[in-house]
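Repro:
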Amino acid sequence: MNDPDYRFLLKYGPSEEWESKNTELLHGEPGIAVNPDDSYTVKFGPGHWNDLPSFIEGGGVAGPPGPEGPQGPAGATGATGATGPAGATGATGATGAQGPPGADGADGADGEDGTVPTNAMLAFKWNGSTYVASVNAGHYVGPNDPGSVPDGSIWDQTP
């Protein structure tokens, strides 16, 4: 398996020489610079040495990543997961403010004209706190205001 007739020789040299010559590397071609601290800087083409990102070995720190390739196709959509349990019912909100009163309704139609018999009589009797209608009340002719007659009296108004 080990055939000494085949060897790969990579471009390498001191880092000062790489920077001063700014050598162009072809697509995928590696270049190795030996740094003053005996660590190595490795860069890959395409591009000029000073414009390429580096990969440092020998205890060094990796340089910035290379340019990104094109984005691959989107994967298939996964299956929909199971529905979770229903959440708890929230608290009832506060009662809103009362709205303004509505407009007055339209007046009703006038009723039929009636007649008052000439012998009609309205009788009221004082019961100690108010006047109440009394059909069996005696006849007292007094002022038109029942509040001005004496207690226990009967006031009537004949039309």
